[in-house]
Amino acid sequence: MVSVHTSPLAQPGTGDAGGMNVYVLNTARELARAGVEVEIFTRATSSEEPPTTEAAPGVLVHHLPAGPFEGLSKNDLPTQLCAFTGGLLRAEAHNPAGHYDLIHAHYWLSGQAGWVASERWGVPLVQTFHTLAKVKNAQLAEGDRPEPHTRVIGEEQVAAEADLLIANTAAEAAELQNHYQADARRVDVVHPGVDLDVFSPGDRRSARESLNLPQGALVVAFVGRIQPAKAPDVLLRGIARLRETDPALAARIVPVFVGGPSNTDLYWLPKLTSELGLGDQVQWRTPRSGAALAQVYRAADVVAVPSYNESFGLVALEAQASGTPVVAAKVGGLPTAVAEAKSGLLVDSHSADDWAGALRKILGDADLRERLAAGTRSHAAAFSWRATADGLHTAYTRAALMRAHALTLRP
For the chain, which has fewer Cβ within 10 Å, the N-terminal or C-terminal residue? Predict the structure, then answer.
C-alpha cells in the first residue's frame, strides 16, 4: 500500500489525518489476518521515526525520506513525488524479484508514485482516491479554496492508468465514470467498515461522567478535522438559528467539537462561536481514537456530520455502531453510511434554517431519538473491516487476472 501524504499511524482528526488513515490501517490489519502480507509506504515527517514499524502482525509501515522532516501541505507534496518514488523503488530493490504482487495506492499523490512502481515491477495498480478534486470543487464551502488544477490532472492520469479503481459507494463509482471517464469494467465498489468491537453501545451516564458533560443536556457531537469542508460552522449556525425559533430547546444543547485544525486558521471556529453568542455552550476536545472516541459517541444524543462532501463518512458509521443516531448532510457517501429515518436524518442543504429544523426535529422528540438509536447498530453491523478486506481481496484477484489477460493479448 502507498499512502504518501499521511501515515496510517497518525492521529486522525487534525492536519491531513482523517478517515483515510483509519481505512488504510484497518484494511491492512484485516488483510494480514487473512494471510496477505502488507507493507505500507508513507513519507517520513520526523528524523526520529524508525525507518520501519510493525503496525500489526503481518503489517509493516515504511517511512521514506522525501523532502524536509516535517509536515507539508498536500499542495506542496507534488514537489516531493520524485524523491518519494525513488525511495519506493529503492526499497523494492532490496527484495528478491517478484516480492510484491500488487500495489494499492491511496489518494492521487500515492497513485502517481504507484503508477511508476507498477510499470517498473510489472504488477497491478489498484487505486482508491478517497476524495475527488472535481467533486470537491463542485461542492465547495463558502470561502474555501478550490483544489488545484495540478491535482485534477494527476487524478485523470491515475484513473486512466490504474488496473482497477476502488470506489467507496455506487455514487462514487458514478462520479469516476462521469467526471473522469473511468471504464465501468475497471471500477469495483467496496464499502469501508467500522470496528464493531471498539465502537459499540455503552452507558451514556458513565460516558458523560468520563468527559465531564452535564447529564441533563442535549449533547451534539462533531468529530473530525476543523476545516471549512467538514462544515462545523453549519452546525453552529443551525444551533444559533434554533435559538431564535426555539430558545428553550437551544438552551439545553451542548455542542462538543472533537478535532483539531487542518491547514486553516486555528481560531476561525472559536471566533465564529463567539460571534454567534454560543461561546458559553460549546465544548472543545482534542482528537482521539479507539475506546476514547467511542466514549464521545456514547455520551452524545446526536452526532452531526454536516460536511460539504464525504466519499463515505466513517464518523457517521462509528457513531451508529456506538448506538447514537446521526444527522448528516445528504452528500457523497453519507446516504449510504446513514439509513435515512432508520438510524439518522439526512439534510438536503447547508442552510442554517434547514439544520435548525433537523436539530429541532431530533432533539425535540425523545421518542424519535430512541427509535433511530434502535436502528443504528443493525445498520452499522452491515459494515465491517473484515467485509471490506474480503471485498478488496476479491478486487486484487480480479486486477491480477485482468493484467495477466492483457499481457496474453499483446502482440
Answer: C
What pLDDT sits at residue 410? 55
Asked whether the whole model's pTM tops 0.90, one would answer: yes
CB distance 299 to 204 below 8 Å: yes
Q: Where are the alpha helices (DSSP H) in 246-380?
A: 247-251, 268-275, 290-299, 314-321, 334-337, 352-363, 366-380
Cα separation of 299 and 215, whole Å? 9
- What cell does 72 get? 507539508
Element housing 118 (H / E): helix 108-121
Distances (CA, A) of 386 to 196, 294, 336, 391, 400: 10, 19, 18, 9, 21
Q: How many CA atoms lie within 13 A of 141 on its CB side?
A: 17
Q: CA 9 to CA 11: how far, in whole Å?
A: 7
In order, the DSSP letters of 32-55 are HHTT--EEEEEE---TTS-SEEEE
